[in-house]
């Protein structure tokens, strides 16, 4: 007689958005390990059609309240490609400074408030042991610091209003930008302390994704610019961003309102996010972050997915170091801080590095500047196939032990693994074109 | 020891997460709140879920699936006070653009299998499905206003949230009017205050994140912009964003969708 065990977590907690976990074990073998996304689709790609291209960054920001800047940056640069315009270096620096703000606040949210409790056997950041009060304090400070950058440059922390195709609506004045310096310097200390804390965590054994995809750049740790890099195969593959659809394909699965992705070359799942970025761009880290990465004793990409928390810690340091350098040299860009937008038909694509991984956008516009087609491929949907692959690995390994762990312990391990990807489920979802199935 | 603190629950429907993030963005204040309030149900922040009932429920997101309708009714029963937060919860969000049904294949082929998530043809506000005690506007909501609403409900008083327009906020800050000085079509005169008039301060139009103010004379405002040379389709898109399904914006979008000469004036 078959023995069937099921593990079901209806609502994953300490993740952004709504997802669940479903595992089915038959005769001690894993039959199903699903990271189920049930967040209702919002059909953004459809509702962008017919909108003026200048409205796009305000609309795509609403895909995600945690990483609106990522959506704005990918949208703006993809649309600038479509129009054949290139913004001046001063605008690029300001965009990078804004993106640093989002990386800092998003990473601090995940590291300190959502992920750290897993390693301290706590159910939330509010119940961390008293000796971690300083760690929480640093997390709150860093989160506020990231928000401060977003407010000064973007006008507000969630859904910034100052970002435009072609630049910014208004360039921030020098006094406001320079005033960030002292808090950034305090933040750098807080980031180093935080990294030291998370580096001491005991990391349970976890799979390490074999294939990794991120941007790679010779000039800087990539946020807004670079080429694609795919590693973990016979050799490192590098290609222009526009070739993304030649390397990764999206497909639909039953259990998710978000599409999954796999590499076209060998049909393997892949990882995007901090561990992938770090492994491809160690040399481009600013000094302090690079020393921290090298001094961590970890052979990047780490052999454990859980150590993504350390990669996030290093990236917070990098983002603050980058921000300090930009702030020190800041001179207000010439006014207006926004290029005139020509009206011409065309198409363009771009990818930037959202805190949780590569975010690809493609747009087609008509000669009146209205969107006629949009494709958005967010990092969490790209990571989904990899998450399920890792779940399968963990469960198979645990069940092979002479004394297989309890359901509660298996559940905990699976949840911790999913959280280590920092899934952004609101982002992942709202793109699916539903099709008839099973009729 | 029995915990006598008031109990808070936070829920999410179709949305971007940005409004509940504002609760975590209260930074230092969140710990003050956590001391005085038991955060009993908040999936994004904690794993333990304390059973209801709750004193205050904050709801983010719009109702867009059949399951949502059942879930919000259960939530209503669990919460003594229910507060809808943000444009999705108070007006259906940007995903309510599908309510017009202009795109017939928008929802083509919703999954037949019950395991699959099915989707309603509409995205609507929480208040369209259950009685609510307060609506806090904004896309996203303002953290300061959220704190005021929480404090008010915990103290048993009405929240003190100004209901005037963004236009008033501009005047208070002495921001030069972008509509008058630069001929920009700005929704500030008809949009609910709360953001601090940040868009005109950045030299751009208000695009209605906080939804219509009370009262809002849309026809008069868009008529003025049309006479100044603004394009009718552009004005239509301006009112059709995050609060498109709020009645005042919705009616104006419908009116602007008609060609100007076929319009019936009453």
Q: Which structural traits does this protein have?
A:
heterodimer, A: 439 residues, Cytochrome-c3 Hydrogenase, chain B, 3-stranded antiparallel β-sheet, 13 strands, B: 266 residues, alpha/beta, 2 domains, 5-stranded parallel β-sheet, globular
Shape of chain B: globular
Radius of gyration of chain B: 20 Å
Major beta sheet summary of chain A: 3 strands, antiparallel
- Gross CATH architecture of chain A: Orthogonal Bundle
Class derived from helix and strand content of chain A: alpha+beta
* Quaternary structure state of the chains depicted: heterodimer
Summed up, the domain count of chain A is 1
| The CATH top-level class label of the largest domain in chain B | Alpha Beta
User: What name is given to the CATH topology of chain A?
Assistant: Cytochrome-c3 Hydrogenase, chain B
Strand portion of chain A:
15-25%
Assign the CATH class of chain A: Mainly Alpha
Q: What is the CA-based Rg of chain A, rounded?
A: 21 Å
**Helix and strand sequence of chain B:** EHHEEHEHEHHHHHHH
Q: Segments of chain A where pLDDT lies below 50 for 5+ residues?
A: 430-439
Low-confidence stretches of chain B: 108-117
In this structure, how is the largest beta sheet of chain B organized? Answer: 5 strands, parallel
How many individual β-strands of chain A?
Answer: 13
Strand order of the largest sheet of chain A: 1-2-3
CATH architecture of the largest domain in chain B: 3-Layer(aba) Sandwich
Fourth CATH level, the homologous superfamily of the largest domain in chain B: NADH:ubiquinone oxidoreductase-like, 20kDa subunit
What's the name of the CATH homologous superfamily of chain A?
Answer: Cytochrome-c3 Hydrogenase, chain B
């Amino acid at each position: 007689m078959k023995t069937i065990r099921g593990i079901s977590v209806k609502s994953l907690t300490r993740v952004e958005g709504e997802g669940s976990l479903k595992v089915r074990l038959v005769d001690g073998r894993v039959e199903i390990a699903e990271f189920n996304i049930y967040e209702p689709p919002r059909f953004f790609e459809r509702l962008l059609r017919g909108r003026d291209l200048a409205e796009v960054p305000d609309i795509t920001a609403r895909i995600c309240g945690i990483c609106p800047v990522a959506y704005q940056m990918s949208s703006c640069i993809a649309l600038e490609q479509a129009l054949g315009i290139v913004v001046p270096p001063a605008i690029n620096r300001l965009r990078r400074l804004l993106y640093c703000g989002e990386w800092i606040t998003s990473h601090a949210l995940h590291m300190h408030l959502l992920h750290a409790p897993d390693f301290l056997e706590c159910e939330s950041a509010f119940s961390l042991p008293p000796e971690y009060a300083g760690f929480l304090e640093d997390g709150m400070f860093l989160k506020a610091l990231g928000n401060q950058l977003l407010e000064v440059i973007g006008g507000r922390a969630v859904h910034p209003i100052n970002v435009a195709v072609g630049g910014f609506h208004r360039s921030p004045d020098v006094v406001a930008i320079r005033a960030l310096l002292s808090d950034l310097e305090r933040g750098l200390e807080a980031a180093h302390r935080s990294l030291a804390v998370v580096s001491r965590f005991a990391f349970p054994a976890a799979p390490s994704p074999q294939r990794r995809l991120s941007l790679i750049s010779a000039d800087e740790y990539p946020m807004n610019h670079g080429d694609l890099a795919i590693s973990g195969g016979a050799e490192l593959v590098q290609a222009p961003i526009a070739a993304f659809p030649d390397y990764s394909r999206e497909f639909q699965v039953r259990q998710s309102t978000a599409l999954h992705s796999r590499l076209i070359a060998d049909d393997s799942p892949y990882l995007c996010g901090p561990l992938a970025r770090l492994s491809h761009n160690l040399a481009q880290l600013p000094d302090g972050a690079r020393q921290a990465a090298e001094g961590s004793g970890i052979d990047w990409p780490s052999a454990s997915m859980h150590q993504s928390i350390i990669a996030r810690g290093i990236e917070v340091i990098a983002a603050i170091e980058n921000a300090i350098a930009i702030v020190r040299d800041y001179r207000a860009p010439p006014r207006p801080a926004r290029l005139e937008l020509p009206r011409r038909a065309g198409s363009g694509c771009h990818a930037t590095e959202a805190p949780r991984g590569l975010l690809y956008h493609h747009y087609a516009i008509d000669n009146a500047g209205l969107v006629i087609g949009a494709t958005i491929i967010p990092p969490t949907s790209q990571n989904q196939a990899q998450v399920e692959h890792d779940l399968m690995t963990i469960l198979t390994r645990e069940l092979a032990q002479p004394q297989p762990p309890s359901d509660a312990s298996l559940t905990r391990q699976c949840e911790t693994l999913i959280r280590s990807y920092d899934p952004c489920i609101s982002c992942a979802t709202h793109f699916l074109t539903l099709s008839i199935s099973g009729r | 020891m029995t915990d006598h603190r008031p109990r808070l629950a936070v829920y999410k429907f179709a949305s971007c997460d940005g409004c509940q993030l504002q609760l975590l963005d209260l930074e230092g204040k969140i710990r003050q709140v956590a001391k005085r309030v038991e955060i009993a149900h908040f999936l994004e922040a904690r794993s333990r879920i304390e059973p209801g009932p709750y004193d205050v429920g904050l709801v983010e997101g719009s109702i867009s699936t059949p399951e949502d309708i059942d879930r919000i009714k259960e939530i209503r029963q669990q919460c003594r006070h229910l507060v809808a937060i943000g444009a999705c919860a108070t007006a259906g969000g940007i995903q309510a653009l599908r309510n017009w049904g202009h795109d017939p294949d928008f929802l083509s082929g919703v999954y037949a299998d019950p395991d699959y998530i099915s989707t309603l043809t509409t995205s609507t506000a929480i208040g369209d499905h259950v009685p609510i005690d307060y609506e806090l506007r904004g896309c996203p909501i303002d953290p300061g206003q959220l704190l005021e609403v929480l404090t008010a409900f915990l103290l048993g008083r009405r929240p003190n949230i100004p209901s005037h327009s963004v236009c008033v906020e501009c005047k208070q800050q002495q921001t030069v009017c972008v509509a008058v000085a630069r001929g920009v079509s700005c929704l500030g005169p008809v949009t609910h205050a709360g953001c601090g008039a940040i868009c005109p301060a950045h030299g751009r139009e208000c695009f209605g994140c906080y939804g219509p103010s009370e009262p809002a004379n849309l026809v008069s405002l868009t008529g003025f912009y049309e006479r100044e040379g603004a394009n009718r389709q552009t004005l239509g898109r301006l009112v059709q964003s995050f609060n498109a399904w709020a009645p005042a914006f919705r009616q104006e979008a419908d009116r602007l969708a008609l060609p100007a000469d076929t319009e019936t004036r009453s």
